[in-house]
Specification:
The chain is α+β, with helices and mostly antiparallel strands and 754 residues long. It has a domain at 44-376: Distorted Sandwich (Beta-galactosidase, Chain A, domain 5). It contains 10 helices and 48 strands. Helix 4 (413-425) runs parallel beside helix 5 (460-472) and helix 6 runs parallel beside helix 7. It starts with a helix and ends with a strand.
């Protein structure tokens, strides 16, 4: 071939190469110019013999930096769907999956898969068979794209499962937000379902006692589990469904009692707020996790090392997409079959990890962060924080009489007037009173739909007049309304009671002397009744209602063959609250977080936790969040065994005291459903109420409207509480005088400093 022809061929090859390169560049530019740029060159398939890898980046294994904020870097490892958060100032790292160098090799293959996967699914195959599905033990394809602030990944689980979901992970300032969009979840194989999804179940994990710190447990007012080596003492840890158990899924039996009168087992506290947290105190690195989406169907899992034979401390959110329930075979039959919910949850699943460092990397920093989050999102409102002692009264009860029941008046309107007058003489002003059992038919004539006062306590006109007169004296009387409970013995409720998802009527059995079984109203009917009562009260010039039932219960239910989830119930309860919020002053009994914005005050706020064995320290976390925003009242002091400790807990938490009294001797209740109540007669508590009022009012005057910004247990056992106005309170729970910061506090006492 001559030289001229060779040159032509070479030029043709060069031109062809240029065209190919230009096409490739154009394609890349198109991809990069799209809304989301692909992170990987192709899908990662865990069954591939040569998986796509990234190569080592900045000595962080195979992680790739995908985003950063002013304070943090977000690194991502696709094969395990794992992230690392790196504090740019300190270099401290929070990991979401177990790294190879920290693997102690003690776990079996199933737990290895669990600990090394950012998403862990509990799957249902067939009717009741459940399986763990994670990206390490199941054939999985992961496709990842860059997004603003992070990544979006699609996870497809193959083999026997054929379902998948999408996960968005992004940095928003100092927050890491993880979201699973509802529309991304799909189930493509018959009789195979996603039961639950655990999001980053190892986020912030530590091994045995290798690191100092603790996990925040949202039990009661709050508690901590330390990260020290538990030496295998606990087989399990904390598992709590946010906003309490779902009574639409499981029937409730009668509470165990002694001699059919005294309760022997106390209920565990509900998880009132969708939060948990982890603090590494040596590294001064922590996070507060807030479940923002599908919180009503989320479990919070907080497992200390040793639980389930795993040597790692871990806490996370597990979202329940489908539940299992027992379906009776036929009416009246004792036989049951296990059934899977017909449809899954339809909500975005979202967790926000608020990242904390330095002096904020502790539970006080978590509380301050959560308070600001609630305020910024309109979930709480600053209320009147004037100090009041709460003194509730029981009006009328019922006992059996011949063919029916007869009234047992315990506090009449005249007696209530005398009680409040006696308290004024003792110097107790501005009393908050919840009047229970005021309605016609007495305490358990439920639901309440009319403002009609039982004649045995004085009647409607007398109570209305007293409420008006006491308001002029600075005392506020609230009418108690359990807006959820139905007593079928006193009210017709055939078409209005809640049916569980198995289409059986929900029944709550009690060991009552008169009434044995109660039911729940349908959520929308409860709202209508609340509005009806509020309207009648408003017509009489009354504005104060104490609400219970709808404030603390949340359930699934069925109606006319249709299924309604807890999400629907929550929406109906909100609608009912919105209907009366503008017209009523509302105090709420042990309300769940989504109810807090309606509350002028919170009643029966727990001072401690459920006292689980694995709890290392109780803290007043919710009080730290809400103090200075919403007044909080304790459970009844006269039912507390250790009144000294109970009083000191109120000093520590800023919660106001509560008493439950009657004008008559409590012995008259022996044949009523309130037979378990004792020591109620007001005369026995007059001086105690006055003493509590003097001591706690003095503290409240110094604190004013300030918020708690610091809380710590010092090395010697003294508890130090700091307010944002500079007031400091020291509480000594020990039987020895203790000193700190130049302050000495006597045994079982407290001291307030400016």
């Amino acid at each position: 071939m001559d030289t001229k022809k060779r040159r032509k061929i070479i030029w043709l090859i060069v031109i062809l190469a240029v065209v190919i390169v230009a096409a490739i560049v154009a394609t890349v530019l198109i991809v990069l110019g799209s809304k989301q740029a692909r992170l990987t060159a192709g899908n990662y398939n865990h069954t591939s013999p040569k998986p796509v890898t990234k190569g080592k980046v900045d000595a962080r294994d195979d992680y790739v930096k995908v985003a950063e904020s002013d304070s943090y870097e977000l690194w991502y490892f696709e094969p395990n769907f794992s992230v690392k958060l790196v504090n740019k100032a300190t270099g401290a790292v929070i990991e979401s999956t177990l790294s190879e160098e920290k693997d102690d090799g003690q776990a079996n293959d199933i737990w290895q898969g669990y600990m090394k996967s950012g998403i862990v699914i509990n799957a249902i195959r067939g009717i009741t068979n459940t399986y763990q599905v994670d990206v390490n033990t199941v054939e999985t394809e992961i496709s990842t794209w860059y997004t603003d602030g992070g990544i979006y990944a699609e996870l497809e689980f193959k083999g026997n499962y054929m379902f998948g979901l999408g996960v968005e992970v992004r940095l928003e300032g100092d927050d890491l937000v993880v979201r699973i969009p509802d529309e991304s979840i799909h189930e493509d194989k018959a009789d195979t379902y996603i039961s639950s999804v655990s999001v980053f179940p190892m986020m912030g994990y530590t091994h045995l006692g290798d690191e100092a710190g603790y996990m925040l447990v949202p039990d009661g007012n709050g508690a901590l589990i330390y990260l020290d080596d538990k030496e295998g003492r606990y087989a399990t840890g904390f598992t709590g469904l946010v906003y309490g158990n779902d009574d639409g899924m499981t029937s409730k039996g009668a509470v165990p009692t002694l001699w059919e009168r005294y309760e022997t087992v106390a209920d565990a506290n509900n998880v009132l707020a969708p939060i948990f947290g982890m603090a590494h105190t040596d590294d001064e690195q922590a996070y507060l996790a807030i479940i923002e989406g599908a919180d009503e169907r989320a479990y919070i899992e907080i497992q200390p090392n040793g639980a389930n034979n795993i040597n790692y401390n871990r806490c996370f959110a597990r979202f329940l997409l489908r539940d299992l329930y027992l379906q009776p075979l036929s009416k009246g039959s004792s036989g049951v079959v296990t059934v899977v919910e017909a449809d899954r949850l339809h909500s975005d699943l979202q967790v926000r990890y608020c990242l904390l460092s330095g002096e904020d990397a502790n539970y006080a920093g978590m509380a301050n962060t959560y308070r600001q989050y609630l305020l910024d999102n309109g979930l709480i409102r600053k209320q009147n924080l004037s100090y009041n002692t709460r003194v509730d009264v029981l009006g009328s009860e019922r006992e059996e009489f011949l063919m029916g029941t007869t009234a047992v008046p315990m506090t009449t309107v005249d007696q209530l007037e005398d009680i409040l007058a006696a308290l004024r003489r003792e110097g107790v002003a501005n009393v908050l009173t919840v009047f229970r059992g005021w309605q016609k038919g007495g305490l358990y004539d439920l639901p309440i739909t009319d403002y009609k006062v039982d004649g045995s306590v004085g009647g409607t006109k007398a109570l209305t007049k007293l409420i008006m007169e006491e308001a002029e004296q600075g005392n506020t009387i609230y009418l108690y309304n359990d807006a959820l409970t139905v007593n079928a013995s006193t009210n017709s409720s055939t078409y209005n009671v809640m049916k569980m998802v198995n289409k059986r009527t929900f029944e709550q059995e009690v060991n009552g002397q008169v009434y044995k079984t109660f039911y729940y109203l349908m959520p929308d009917k409860a709202g209508l009744n609340m509005a009806e009562l509020a309207g009648q009260m408003s017509d009489e010039g009354l504005k104060n209602m104490a609400l219970a039932g709808v404030t603390e219960k949340l359930f699934s239910f069925s109606y006319k063959g249709n299924y309604y989830a807890r999400t629907d119930t929550m929406d109906m309860f909100r609608d009912g609250m919105n209907e009366i919020d503008d017209d009523m002053n509302l105090v709420l009994e042990t309300p769940n977080m989504y109810m807090w914005k309606y509350a002028d005050a919170l009643l029966d706020m727990p001072l401690g936790s459920s006292d689980y064995l694995y709890i290392d320290q109780e803290i007043p976390f919710l009080s730290m969040v809400l103090k200075g925003i919403i007044p909080m009242y304790s459970c009844y002091v006269n039912f507390e065994a250790n009144k000294t400790e109970n009083f000191l807990q109120m000093v520590e938490s800023g919660i106001y005291p509560s008493f439950y009294v009657t004008g008559e001797d409590s012995s008259k209740l022996i044949y009523t459903n309130s037979s378990n109540l004792y020591s109620l007669e007001f005369g026995s508590y007059t001086s105690t109420i006055a003493q509590y009022d003097r001591d706690l009012r003095a503290i409240a005057e110094k604190v004013g409207t300030a918020c708690i910004v610091g809380h710590e247990r010092l090395d010697n056992g003294l508890v130090k509480v700091t307010y944002d106005n500079g007031v400091t309170i020291y509480v000594n729970y020990t039987e020895t005088a203790l000193s700190a910061d130049g302050v000495t506090v006597d045994a079982l006492s407290y001291k307030v400093g400016e």
